[in-house]
Amino acid sequence: MRLNNKIRSSALKALAIGLGLSAIATTASASVAVDELDVPDYLRGTQPSSLELLIDENKSFDIISAGGLNYDSGTGAVFFDVLGPLFCFQLSDNLPNPALLLSLGDANGDSIVETFPLDSTLQYRLFSNQIAMTVPDDGACFYESDLGFGIDGIEPADSAGGSDRIFTDRFVGSSELQIEFIDVPSFVRVGEFLNYSIEVSNFGTQTASKVGIQELYPRNLELYPDGQLIAGFFACVESGGANCADATSGLNSTSIRGKNVSIPPGGSVRFNISRRVFESSVVGGTIDLYAGAVERSREANRSWDAATATMTVIGEGQTIAASFENTALPVANGIDQAQIRVTALDNLKNPTPDVTIEVSDADNLIFTQTSGVTGVDGSVVFLASTSGAEQAGSFLPEFVAPEIGNNGANTNVSVEFVADLPAQFSAFTTVNNAVADGKDVGIIEVSVFDALSNPVENALVTVQNPDGLTFVQSSGTTDQSGIAVFTASSTDSGTFSPTFAQLNIAGTTSSEISFTPGEPAQLAFVVQPSDVAAGEIITPAVVIQVLDAFGNLVVADDSSVITLQLRQNSIGQSFFPDAVAVDGVVTFSNLSVDTAGTNYDLRVFSDYPTITSDTFEVFRIFQ
């Protein structure tokens, strides 16, 4: 079924009855009594009807039932209201013999399509309950889709130059026009007065002599229940030779709309807007703003742009939260600063501006300021640094919002400062006097510090000279306390001085470490018996040591008993008196043999394996 400018009144009436809409010939934006939201009476308390307006088979919009479908047989124009966001511009002022003139209002009663000439008629689709229209080639409609907000529901895309806009096969952006919202707060309170701007600039090389500009904002309480703005006023400011033309300033203004704004290259128009958040706005709700601009003065490569902004309605501050925001941990050098953001939140966890925040406990940090007020994003940033030496580590500063509740709201945040580059180090033996058995280990810890004596974590320390010790690892990294641990073993008893190095530090560091002998396990002659005259004392004295399994003198042995047998030609001759070790040493200083002969030796008996000395000779003494 088609609706056109030649339709008879009886047929229109029948269509209106079929659609359940009014056939009264009044415009959708007719002026009626308004409340402070400046919405016509016929749009207050209404809901979308079941009937939809379908554009280019692409996007459908609810038709508002109370507005009715109105037809002026004298002009061939149809009027009704839709729930957007939607607005359209005719790109040529002269279109011969249009099939139909279409005018639309939005849920606020503002004009969004003005006597828009269609080159094909509207179609009523009974089964889908839709009125379908096709946007003519000489028209441009801004609306929102899954692809964003812009002409044909496609969001403008930035070019390599930063402002180029591209949309459909019918329009190619040339980066000439740019529209943007300025100073729109992210969060607003009920009843709050707002001042923000919309600016349209021409970055091209030709004058855009006829620019269509439209903005949309919510006023209808029933159809935009989350949040509404009360109409205030706006002023159009011209720059660089621009002309606001029909986008004039006004008090209690409806949405801004102009069709003949002129902007030369480098020029701009800015709409400075003052409005207020309506008292019925819901905390947690959003207020969506839309704006678009399209050049109407050229046939090809028409430039256009679109912009959106969203404000969230918030309540009064209820709590505060703090976060440590440094991407790289600050150095505890008294210069680097920790960045701490404290955010005030309402009961829905929305950020809340204009809340005073104070540092209630600095936890030994130095703050550049001890109080601040949350900004439009509901937060305030505090900067803090350390003082003095040995300050690397974690801190827990506390903050308070004294105006929230009866006792204020409190929070804290963990802040970490790290050490600077390694500048000094020292070694210390923590496990000493391990047994020199190749298994038991001693431990040396190397501590690395920066110039302010802060322990340095993850610093690489290497063993430069092991001094004969066997280390489990030849290098190691320092832990959170700045300590690298080295374990070493030895089969040699004694005191050693291994050295350690660190790449950033000149020189080395060392710590003495001792290994003790194991349990007594063997004997050894230190001084062998020498040839001697019969009856004379063997000189030097025969010395035997008590050794562990690895040949280390067991200096702690004061109890081993040694039995010494005199032998000749491997045949026992006599025994000397037993002797007891002192400090692991047995010294026989009074040995003598009365009978001259050769092939004497000393056989040693004890709790350990038997040993035998070298042979020696006893000379006869001639008178």
Question: Can you walk through the features of this model?
Answer:
- With 623 residues, this protein is an all-beta fold.
- The chain has five domains: 2-144, no CATH class; 168-314, Immunoglobulin-like; 320-417, Immunoglobulins (Immunoglobulin-like); 424-516, Immunoglobulin-like (Sandwich), CATH 2.60.40.10; 522-619, Immunoglobulin-like, CATH 2.60.40.10.
- The strands form twelve sheets. Strands 1, 2, 3, 4, 5, 7, 8, 9 and 10 form a nine-stranded mixed sheet that branches. Strands 45, 47, 48, 49, 51, 52 and 53 form a seven-stranded mixed sheet that branches. It has a five-stranded antiparallel sheet with strand order 13-15-20-17-18, with no helix packed on it.
- It starts with a strand and ends with a strand.
